[in-house]
User: Which sequence fits this backbone?
């Protein structure tokens, strides 16, 4: 196999790297070494081509490994991949060629869902039938990508010692839609205002890394 070729007969090197957690810059690419034929330093010389591409400025070379020079935030400018050129020189002949490199950036679940247009409040009649949708305005924003940015909603217990806790009286039947329905008969004489605690949780494939936020929907009951 001649030196300075991409293994497998490919014309482009494609690598994956996880975005940084905070200021992290020590994460490795996958695969960890550039799949280019020849031993770096004895057979070939690899260099990142400095030029118009920002990608080349974010990495430095350590042998055949790419090392980050600064943290990578996928959400900063919707950064999903970096493209740059490597030059590879065969030491024995001086022949030099350029090899395109694409580094795909995978998302880390580093944002919690943020509720929009708060506070949430609605007034309904005490005779509102069970199953009626009373509120459709719950919205969130989560800049993470893929399942990390998908949000599910649910009604969760608030203050168990308060008759104003809306848990049990109201529910969200479709987790992917922030629509609240009446779940139980209401009685103005008993409770005139409910506080419904709503949980938004993202759907990261890694259950342990799922992030969540809570908000309150105030439901005022109108006497009939």
Assistant:
């Amino acid at each position: 196999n001649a030196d300075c070729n991409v293994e497998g007969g490919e014309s482009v090197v494609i690598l994956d790297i996880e975005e940084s957690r905070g200021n992290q810059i020590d994460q490795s690419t996958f695969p960890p070494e550039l799949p280019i034929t020849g031993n770096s330093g004895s057979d070939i010389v690899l260099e990142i081509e400095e030029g118009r591409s920002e990608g080349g400025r974010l990495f430095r070379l350590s042998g055949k490994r790419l090392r980050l020079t600064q943290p990578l935030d996928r959400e900063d400018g919707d950064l999903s991949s970096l493209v740059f050129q490597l030059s590879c020189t065969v030491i024995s002949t001086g022949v030099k060629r350029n090899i395109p490199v694409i580094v795909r950036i995978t998302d880390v679940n580093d944002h919690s869902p943020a509720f929009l247009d708060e506070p949430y409040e609605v007034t309904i009649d005490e005779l509102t039938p069970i199953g009626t949708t009373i509120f459709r305005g719950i919205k969130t924003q989560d800049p993470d990508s893929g399942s990390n940015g998908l949000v599910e909603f649910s009604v969760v217990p608030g203050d168990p010692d308060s008759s104003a806790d809306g848990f049990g009286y109201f529910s969200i039947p479709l987790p992917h839609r922030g629509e609240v329905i009446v779940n139980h008969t209401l009685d103005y004489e008993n409770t005139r205002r409910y506080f419904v605690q709503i949980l938004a949780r993202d759907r990261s494939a890694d259950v342990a890394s799922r992030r969540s936020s809570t908000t309150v929907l105030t439901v005022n009951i109108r006497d009939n």
Remarks:
- The chain has two domains: 7-106, 114-222.
